[in-house]
Amino acid sequence: MSFSKNRDPGRRRHFLHLDLEELQAALAAAGDSGAAIKMWLAVRHRARLTKNNVVKVTTKLCRQFGITDRKAKQRGLAKWADSGAWHVVTENGKNPVVDIGIQPARDVSAGT
Questions:
Q1: What CATH number is associated with residue 85?
Q2: For the chain, how many structural domains are there in total?
Q3: Which of 6, 9, 11, 35 is deepest in the core (most CB within 10 A)?
Q4: Is 4 contained in some domain?
Q5: Which of 44, 11, 17 is nearest to 29 (CA)?
Q6: Is 5 part of a structural domain of the chain?
Q7: How confident is the model at residue 7 (pLDDT cuts 50, 70, 90)?
Q8: In b/e form, how buried is each residue of 81-91, taking b as 16+ CB within 10 angstroms?
């Protein structure tokens, strides 16, 4: 019997480090928009990984979080841009760039 860390090699899993208060606020703001919640999770995850509050929203990033078509990507971004939570810059033929406007939390385990 073989024990591997990745039991399903075709599916990548993400560890998301989130503040519950931020998540509750995002859920309340998104309402019933599944695309908006998935987009929030994807962008916050990438912002935390890169330690930068400016994120390029690529198709690959969206697919990793279950956003599979361009319309859903647009709906998710529009929801947050319209609410004023994010500043979204779009340009024809380019991936949108999102400024989430807050500094991602620092890694506490680094000892700084």
A1: 1.10.10.10
A2: 1
A3: 35
A4: no
A5: 44
A6: no
A7: low
A8: beeebbebeee
Question: H or E stretch including 89?
Answer: strand 87-89
Computed over every residue of the chain, the mean pLDDT equals: 79
d(CA 104, CA 91) in angstroms, rounded, equals 25
CA gap 44, 68 in Å, rounded? 18
49: in domain: yes
Q: What is the identity of the amino acid at 56?
A: K
Within-domain flag for 46: yes
pLDDT band at 61 (very low <50, low <70, confident <90, very high): very high
SS3 of the chain: the string is CCCCCCCCCCCCCCCCCCCHHHHHHHHHHHCCCHHHHHHHHHHHHHHHHHCCCEEECCHHHHHHCCCCCHHHHHHHHHHHHHHCCCEEECCCCCCCEEECCCCCCCCHHHCC
Candidates 73, 18, 61; CA nearest to 81 is 73
